[in-house]
Amino acid sequence: MLYESRGARPRVDPDALVAASAIVSGDVTIGAGSRIMHGAVVTAEDGPVVIGADVVVLENAVIRGRAGYPAIIGDDVMVGPHAHVNGCVVGDGAFLATGSSVFPGATIGDGAEVRINAVVQVNTRLAAGAVVPISWVAVGDPAQLFSPDRHDEIWAVQRTLNFVGTVYGAGPDATMADIMRTQSKFYGEHRGDTALPD
């Protein structure tokens, strides 16, 4: 389904495919030969999404554009099932495996791999051809790679990357109540979305 959202309509190349149960919402551009499969959600919240040519977005993946952090996916990219791609830049030929998560402000270099359940944190820069192993965390600019059991080391880098400000636009002293009031209002704007005819 295609939706007009926040005053913008998706632009889908005639050679692209959006499965009947996928959602494409707002300021989204999808290139030739790309495939958005069942259950996937591609949504331009308050920032655009641009998907290149011959990209496959598999079942139940989410791609989200954000204010100041558009989601830009290069050509020939695989986005695996249940992947979460949020306000980041993904280079040509990259592979984002099942359950991988890429956070706002991150950059994934050409041909890089983010393997099953791996995470690329906010404002992290992953070099071309780099590999984030299964369930590992990439954090920093340039990215450092950590196994998930090294939380204290991950946090030592991550705390300098402004997660709350980047993801929620909130200050470092914001409480969850502050963040969620703002988020509730922001996502409530989807009440005005309009389904577009096929």
Q: Could you characterize what this model shows?
A:
- The protein is α/β, with parallel strands linked by helices and 198 residues long.
- The protein has one domain (2-195): UDP N-Acetylglucosamine Acyltransferase, domain 1 (3 Solenoid), CATH 2.160.10.
- Helices cover 14% and strands 30% of the residues.
- It is built from three helices and 24 strands.
- The protein has helices at residues 151-158, 163-168, 176-188; strands at 2-4, 11-12, 17-18, 23-25, 28-30, 35-36, 41-44, 49-51, 56-57, 62-65, 71-73, 78-79, 84-86, 89-90, 95-96, 101-102, 107-108, 113-114, 119-120, 125-126, 131-132, 137-139, 144-146, 194-195.
- The protein has a ten-stranded mixed sheet, with helices on one face.
- A hairpin with a 4-residue loop joins strand 22 (137-139) and strand 23.
- The chain is globular.
- The N and C termini lie close together (8 Å).
- The relative contact order is 0.11.
- The mean pLDDT is 96.
